[in-house]
Each structure stands twice: as C-alpha cells, then as structure tokens.
Amino acid sequence: MMPEIVDQEIEGELFSFQALFSQDDTFTDVDGLLAYKAKADPDTMYLHQALKEPDRDQFIQAMEKEVYQQVDKKVYSIIKRSEVPTGATILPAVWALRRKRDVVTGMIKKYKARLNIDGSRMIPGVHYDLTYAPVAGWAAVRLLLALVLLFCYHTIQLDYVLAYPQAPVERDLYMELPKGFTIKSVDNPRDYVLHIHKNIYGQKQAGRVWFYFLKEKLESVGFKQSVHDECVFFKGKMIYVLYTDDSILAGPDQKELKRTVKQMQAVGLDLTMEGDLTDFLGINIDRHDDGTIHLTQPNLINQILKDLRYDNDDIAIKTTPGASSRLLSKHNGSAPFDNSFHYRSVIGKIYYLERGCRPDISYMTHQCARFTSEPKVEHGKAVRWLARYLKGTMNKGLILKPDPNKSLEVYVDSDFAGNWDRELAGQDDATARSRHGYVIYFAGMPIVWKSQLQQEICLSSTEAEVTGLSYALREAIPIMELLKEIQSQGHKIQSKTTEVHCKVFEDNSGAVEIAKFPKYRPRTKHLNVRLFHFRSYVDRSEITIHSIKSEDQPADVLTKPLSEQLFVKHRKKINGW
pTM (2 decimals)? Predict the structure, then answer.
C-alpha cells in the first residue's frame, strides 16, 4: 500500500487520494479499452502492461507524481456521483505510461505517466466541436536552425509542465476515478467521480484548446503570430517556434530571451528553461565549433535494427539504401512476406527518421511504404537492405552549414514512368505514374525534401518535370513568404540583396522553357494551368528558373535507385557527408 497523495475537502470533510498497488495487480482491460502494447514503441504502454514490467515501481512513482500535480493544479475535484447532471456521460480514465530515453545513448532518463480521459467515448456536438490544432512543420523547425547558424543566435528550449491542463476545459466533463487510486475515508469510492475543470489530456479537442490558450498568453507578452505559419511567433528580433508543447525560442540577445521567458511565467504559464537546444522531437542537435549543426537519430536507428534483429556485430552492411538493379512493385506472383518483423511498425520508424534528418533514404523509404497493406517477400528484403545501410551510417544524419551568399534554392527532378512494368500494367495503374523529388535549400542548407509518386498520369518526361516543379513550388512559395516576414522583423536574410529570391534548378529543357515562357497551345494548356500558381512570382523575377546538368541534379537521388558513385555524390550535396 502506497502513502496517501493529496487531501481535498468534500462537504466539510477531508478526503485523500490513495494509491493501492500490490505485486498481483495487473488491472486488465475491464473497461473494454484496447489492451495491447504499442508495437511501434515498446516503451509506451497501458497500465496493465507497465505493472508486468521489471521497472513497475518507477511507473507507479510517476503515476503518483501525475495525480499530485493534477490535483495541485485543480485539474479536477471529487464530487458525489449523484451530483452529476442527468444525462451527462461519465468517461473512463486511461493511463498512458512511457519510458523517455536519451536520443543519443538510448538510456532511460525519465518515466512518464499521463492520466487521460477516454476521448474515444466522447460524442461530437456533446463533448466537443472543432478538433484541429496546428503544429510546426519540419520546414519551420529547420528554417529556425538555419537562421540560428546564419546569425549566431542563442536558443532556449522550453518545456511546459503539464501543458494541456494549464488551459480551462472547454465543456463540462466528468471522469471515473483513475485505476490504481481510491479515496481514503469513504465507505464506497465508487460513489464518487471527478469533475474536470482543466483541459485534461485525452480529449478530442485538447490540442486545439491548448494552442489557442497559449497563443493568447504569448500575445499578452508582446508576441505576434506569423501570417504565414500559425506556429511561428515574433517578438522584436526573437523567433518562437511551437510544436504542441515543445518549443524553441531564438534570438540575438540571450538576456532578452531569459527576460521574455520570465514574462511568460508571469502571465501564468508553467514552464521551465531546458537550456540550449540539444534535442528536439527525438532528434539530437549537436552544434559544432566549426559553425555547423549535426542532426542525428542514432537511438531510433538502433530501435529499427533491434526490430529486425540486426543489433549484433556480424551483420554485413550495405553502402546504398537499396539495390539499383531492380525496382519494387506489387510482385503479385510472389509469396507473402513471412512476418519475421512487424513491417508496418518498422516502416513507420524509418519514415520518421527520413523526415527528421535522413533525406538520403527518402526514395527507398517511400517505395517500401507503398506496400504496407500487403507486403511480399521482395518488400521484406528491401526493408532489410535499407536497415543494413542504416547500420553502417548509424551516427550519420544531416549537416547544416550556412552559406550567407545564398538564399532560397529549389532542386527538382522527375523520373517519367520509372515504375513501368508491362506485366503489371493491366493490374496496377501505379506502374504508369511518375515520381518526382525536390530539395529546398536556404543559405546552402537543406530544410525541406520530398520523394513523391505523382497522383496524375503524365504523358511525357516534360510533363512529369513540370508536375514536379509545380509541387515543389507549392511548398517553396510559403517558405518565401515566411522569409519575407522574418526579414520585415529586422533579420537580414542575405548579405548581397534585400529581397528574398528563389532559384529553381531543372534538368529538363522543355520544362524550363514552359516555366519561363508560357505558351498557351492545345498540347500544353493543362501544363500552363498547373504552373499558373507561381506565374506572378516568375514575372516579378522573385522566382527564376535555371537549367542544370542531370549529373549535377541532387534531387535525382529522390526519384530512383542510383549507382553507388552517383548516390554518394548527391548524398554529399544534400546530407553534407
């Protein structure tokens, strides 16, 4: 039996939450909740799973801390079940427990317990309406890192303590007592429930309520929300980027940064300063003396290797992410994948790795991801090949090195019908689809990349290139506008010019010609329509289109498997190693 947690007065009498656990407690799925461990992360689990782990006592301590914090912050109060309004739903409480590990060493650094309300039982129109909450994209995060390097800015990583419940609850909600806890000094604890007062985790709309609460607080201390990115805020020369409850504050004056954090605390935000930026969203951020930032995820790669049982020393490594001699397709005539590893889970981890700091594996990652619903033997072999490549590059990632003489540059390439397979043509229309890839650089540093199978069927290589160009500039133009906004805040974007300028490099002469000089002819009318969204930027010379030799096109690595020599050349241009 654990000690009592906290006292609360109910109708003039003092009651206490009390933790009750024994070695036999497993708390099975009595409420019909999902009873499985998240296969994508063995460190994330439900209560009945955590109590079977050898480190169960650490989870119990984390649960006690969570309950103490929530009661201390008046997240809920204890009321009699008879006081709940007629017709109101009393929602179950759900524990989510997790081991937090160091992104470099993989060692456990913290045990987290989160007490959630069961959002799956919430009814739209009764318990919630709108649920959308914006989060910062990788483009904004890496753009901020690029500015930090370019201008030698200071950074502070902020951690909000019990973030969501800092905001008031949107609707009246009631919740059952959390499993593992009871109320001391009452005959029947089941006669009592929790009346929710704050924006508790698990609600459908919890993220949205928290975002707009935080936005109001930030504006009260002088921050101004970006017009072009909802999760970017400005105050003087400071830039603040928010991803749910993880955030980065950067600026030229360290004293001003700390003064602003104190202002944020003064308006009621419970947060702590975690010091200079060292890791963010699971990515290790290593700032070197030579003026570069190295982004790596060795712990995630290690998890992938463990999933495939490749975490020993006798596994042969590969020097490229995939074989250049054969393409992946549906392989309808092949045997099903043997389930020697959880295909979907591994692909999910590889995808997060690719989006975070590994553009060199983009093509192979997306090719393997196409077949998660019905993988075959060949797909399993492709994933294992990719894992062998990751094993040999475990401590590699993305190197950001600024070039102050460059602004925004976009490299675009397409592979026309590169997946064509005459035997599958009648069964799979994807064999006729082209793939494009693009890399967007700022000040010589890659901040966005993508390898994508085109939705439309293109009829020529020129059309495939034009389509890729259109997609790339749909992402580049908002970044241009954000850079203009940053520039208006007093940040000198370039050393030679005062305007944000975008150069686009294409290796198809037809696509370059159509993009630079629109000619409305029957055969190209649909292409001109597709290019219309950035036509005004070309007319104002804010976007210029340039030819590039195919062998010098780094985006080529995002569209097809390449020979080792060519792959290494383009990897150096993008990843920096």
Answer: 0.87
Quick: pLDDT tens for 334-357: 999 999 999 999 999 999 999 999
Q: How far is CA 23 from CA 18, 261, 302, in A?
A: 17, 44, 32
Task: For helices 362-369 and 377-392, give the axis angle rounded to 10 degrees.
Answer: 150
CATH of region 402-575, choose from 3.20.19.10, 3.30.420.10, 3.90.1150.10, 3.40.50.1370: 3.30.420.10
Is the CA virtual torsion 215, 216, 217, 222 positive or negative? positive
> What's 458's DSSP letter?
P
> Looking at the chain, which residues constitute the CATH 3.30.420.10 domain(s)?
402-575
Number of residues that this document lists for the chain = 577
The answer to whether residues 279 and 356 touch, using CB atoms and an 8 Å cutoff, is: no
CB atoms within 10 A of CB 551: 10
**SS3 label, residue 449:** strand
Give the whole-angstrom CA distance, residue 93 versus residue 115. 7
Q: How far apart are CA 192 and CA 189, in angstroms?
A: 6
| pLDDT tens by residue, 32-60 | 343 334 445 788 888 888 888 999 899 99
Distance of CA 242 to the CA centre of its chain: 12
CA dist., res. 47 & res. 192, Å (int) = 22
Question: Which residue in 206, 33, 244, 74 sits closest to 127, CA to CA?
Answer: 206
